[in-house]
Amino acid sequence: MIKDNDNEIFSNKTCPDSLDITENSTTSTGYDKTLLYIEDQFFDIEITKNKFIAYEKKNSGTKRTGRVKEYNIDVMENIHFEYPVTIVNFDYQGKKAVYSFNPKNYNALKDLMMKMGLYDPKKDVIGEPIDRNAALKEFINKIVSYLKRIR
Length: 151
Description:
- By secondary structure, the chain is an alpha+beta fold.
- The chain is built from three helices and nine strands.
- A four-stranded antiparallel sheet has the order 3-4-5-6, with helices on one face. It has a three-stranded antiparallel sheet with strand order 7-8-9, with helices on one face.
- The longest helix is centred in the C-terminal third of the chain and has 19 residues.
């Protein structure tokens, strides 16, 4: 999915027409600056050179809720990829962000983060050891609270 052509990183997925950057985003990223676009069940992820943007979806996985979380890539710390549960977590401004992906999207994101120099699988995460059960529990709690909100 990610190809290296003269050190450029790009995805064969294009930004869909339904992506409304002007209303849901604080910055105008532009389609030509999108390095990777991922459609998953609970959110869509857009990765640009400077941003990690998560567009939350309804539980059906087809419509967006309008909630958008933007992370500056240069502020993301302790990026960690969990396997076999395919969870990606990182620290951002003192808080932990946790995202779960299907395996194909997980691998595409991991490859991109390695190419960008943001993730090195040989290095340990700085700080406390990751408690996989706690990360999974936090993710499940987010799903449960989301499902309670939409009912």
